[in-house]
Specification:
alpha+beta; Alpha-Beta Plaits; four-stranded antiparallel beta sheet; globular; 4 strands
Length: 186
C-alpha cells in the first residue's frame, strides 16, 4: 500500500573536514533495492560521484528501501550538490531499468509518487536526506557499526558478512568487488 510521505526540513551544518553520515529513503519506503539491477545503478553512480565531488567513501549499506553513507568531503566538495546529483541520476537510471525490464509495478509507483508530490512525472527518492556531522573517531565507528548491523536488525541476514550490499565485507575480507572503500580515516 502506498502512503503519503511528509518531509521535515532540518538545518544542516557543513563543516570543513567533517565526515557525514547520510541517510536517504526511497519514496514511501518502497523496497526496490532487492533488485540487483537497481543496486548496480546505485553503486556505479556512487563511484562516479565520489570522484566528481572529491569525497572519500568510508562506508555504506544499501537496504531494500533506503541507503546509509559515510562520506568525507575533500577540498571544497559540497554534500548538498552531491546528494542532489546522485539522487537525480540514480532515479533516472532506475526508472530506465524498470522500463527495460517492464516492471509495471515499480513504474506505477514512481508515477504515483511524481503525481503525489507534483514535482515531476516520476519520483524514486523522498525529497532531501538526513545527515549527521561526525565529530570523533568513536562516533564514526558507532555509525559504521550501526550501518553494518542494519541488515541483521532488519532480519535480512543473520550475520553482517552475509549481506552483499554493505561495506562490511570491504573491511573484514578486503572485498572490493562492488566498490572501493577509503580506509585512511582510521
Amino acid at each position: 500500500m502506498l502512503r503519503k510521505v511528509y518531509e521535515i526540513k532540518m538545518k544542516r551544518y557543513h563543516i570543513d573536514g567533517h565526515v557525514y553520515y547520510i541517510t536517504t529513503n526511497v519514496y514511501a519506503r518502497r523496497p526496490i533495492f532487492t533488485r540487483p539491477a537497481y543496486v548496480i545503478a546505485l553503486i556505479d553512480s556512487l563511484n562516479f560521484y565520489r570522484h566528481r565531488y572529491t569525497f572519500q567513501l568510508i562506508g555504506y549499506v544499501i537496504m531494500p528501501d533506503h541507503i546509509h553513507l559515510l562520506v568525507w568531503p575533500q577540498q571544497e566538495a559540497n554534500v548538498d550538490d552531491f546528494m542532489r546529483d546522485f539522487k537525480k541520476f540514480t532515479a533516472t537510471r532506475i526508472i530506465r531499468q524498470a522500463e527495460v525490464e517492464r516492471r509495471s509495478d515499480d513504474l506505477q509507483a514512481f508515477q504515483w509518487a511524481g503525481t503525489e508530490t507534483g514535482r515531476s512525472e516520476n519520483k524514486v527518492w523522498q525529497d532531501s536526506y538526513w545527515d549527521k556531522n561526525i565529530y570523533s573517531d568513536r562516533f564514526l565507528r558507532q555509525k559504521l557499526n550501526y550501518m553494518h548491523r542494519n541488515p541483521v536488525r532488519a532480519q535480512l541476514v543473520e550475520n553482517p558478512e552475509e549481506y552483499p550490499y554493505s561495506s562490511y565485507r570491504n573491511y573484514v575480507a578486503g572485498d572490493e568487488s562492488l566498490i572501493e572503500i577509503d580506509r585512511g580515516w582510521s
